[in-house]
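Subject: for your reference before the review

Hello V.,

The reviewers asked for a structural picture of the protein, and I figured it would be easier to keep everything in one thread rather than splitting it across files. Below is the amino acid sequence we used in the manuscript, unchanged from the supplementary table.
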Amino acid sequence: YSTAEVSGDEDVGGRLGDNDGTVENCYSTAEVSGNSSVGGLVGYNYGTIENSFYCIDDTEINGRHIVTAYGIYKEQFEDWFEDRAIEIDDYLTKISGTDYYRIESVSDLKKLLPFALGGDYKFRQTKDIDLSTEKDFYIPVFKGKEYDGDGHSIFNLNIIYLNNTKGFFGRVGSGAYISNLSVLDCDVSGYDCVGGLVGENEGTVENCHSTGKVSGGS
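And here is what came back from the structure prediction:
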């Protein structure tokens, strides 16, 4: 783990700057500052990170408590910290008669974060969700099995934090499936890999659309 303050220009993270290897069972509580590819746990990642997090509520990134990859909120972080494990059924509920976990609120999206990072989890959105009061919230990494919007929408996604890989889903991993979801009236800006729905996609996206403003460098 790391508790030391970290600052730099690009590829700056509380525990890792640039990762192409394997990281497991790690955490960071460091304050982090930088200009590009900045994260609470890792700055730039193309390796494997498992069971490793930083606490969004306790970690300042460029002076703010914001969501970046592998960030989870305080209640879940403290739960994980106790046994280095966290169980999805303690936070989300399956839709009766299905193997989909129900997503119907901003609170559910926040609880989804650690379980979006991997595993054979399937999620289904059952209501429209408005993010107008949650500036800079998004799902940085989705490597779950499926997110089914079920014809519902995400409204007012607003990410102005200048970093890489931005969208409602920052990066969709290989094997992940996103479907039947609309992202409406978004305002997203970043450096590269910037989109309304997905910043960088290695999975499958079907029957989705987005509207709004998107800006980036490449």
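For the response letter, the relevant points are probably these. The CA atoms of residues 185 and 212 lie 4 Å apart. The mean pLDDT is 95.

Happy to draft the paragraph if you're swamped.

O.
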